Amino acid sequence: MHSISPTIPRFSNNHSIHLRRYNRPFLSHPLPPPLPPRHRTTKILRLRCTIGTSAINTAQPFTYESKISDRIAKSKTLKIAIVGFGNFGQFLAKTLVRQGHTILAHSRTDYSDIAADIGVSYYYNADDLCEEHPDVILLCTSVLSTEKVLRSLPLERLKRSTLFVDVLSVKEFAKELFLRILPSDFDILCTHPMFGPESGKHSWEGLPFMYDKVRIGSNESSVLRCENFHEAFSKAGCIMKEMTCDEHDQYAAGSQFITHTVLRILEKLDLGSTPINTKAYERLLDLVENTSSDSFELYYGLFMYNKNAMQQLERLELAFESLKKELSDQLHEVMKMQLFQTKDRHLGVLQEPRALLKLPTNGNEHALSPRSTSDII
Ligand code: NAP
After folding, report:
1. Model pTM?
2. Spacing, Cα 94 to ligand 1 middle (Å)
3. pLDDT given at position 344
4. Spatial separation of the C-alpha atoms in residues 93 and 101, rounded to whole Å
5. Ligand 1 pocket member 85 (CB < 6 A)
């Protein structure tokens, strides 16, 4: 039994698991056709019990690993396990299935019916999912639950080299988590598809896909596996944007977080359609509706786990106060003229409306343009 351990040093105290893992593909009898997920656990358990260990097994891990490498190198399709099969996980699965990838899924909630409709094999049990040895684990969990879910996965049941990908809307947090929790043999790709089930409903053409190859092995199979995963998005028409997780978080706080915040503020106003809607207002109503289909947890994650978000929230507040002040200053001018009967008086109209003040993009977030710094405080 111990002769196997050198090939899998990472989990040296789990030999029995590895034996099960490496033996299964070498059963002398072909496996029966896949059963409905509900029956799968019992069947697999029964198969495991019938497997004994023999000397020939000692050579098999090498053969198995090399077979897997060959398969990845030759085939562009991947076996992808989606962990977190909610709104976004299901959305990604539909396109990945259409592209010919084999998609497995696992989630806290029972999504077996939805999975069956999409063509995804659903696993109630994370052990069973990992025993399927996916090429890729694609984490689509909420930002807040990701650490808990990641820690609950039986990593020792996976292939020694598995590619971990996340789609979290905050990237430094995901990267740090992966590096901290995953064994060093696992590859890590942090991504953020900059679209969702609404904006990407009809097509992914022209939509940005951010990625950071945090840790991809230099061997051929690792490189190809990562490329094949990328291709799922590039072939669907995404604009591939490579950048660091840190850069992503800076951009996203100033764009995505601001968008979600403004739309959530508007949502609170409970805006409705009027008989005289302008085109701009119609678009605004659509945007507010789209945002309301995202969970609050997602929005909260954008705030909590992006260190740049608080600064943007403060800027937004400052901009709102500044705008209000500009309006009241103008009003004040008019009233002053009326009250003191100045000779240049034009009732209700200012001679030179002041240009809108802008906050600086970066740096001192509490300062307005120089001429108005004193006004704002
Ligand atoms: P979400 O509310 O952020 O996440 C829902 C997912 O998290 C579900 O799979 C849910 O599992 C799982 N989950 C939540 N709490 C859990 C817990 N305590 N334990 C275990 N699992 C838990 O909504 P989402 O839109 O599906 O987003 C998923 C991920 O994709 C997020 O990280 C988000 O940042 C990212 N993302 C979303 C979009 C988008 O437009 N929606 C776009 C790009 C990236 P169950 O359903 O089984 O409860």
Report:
1. 0.75
2. 16
3. 55
4. 9
5. yes
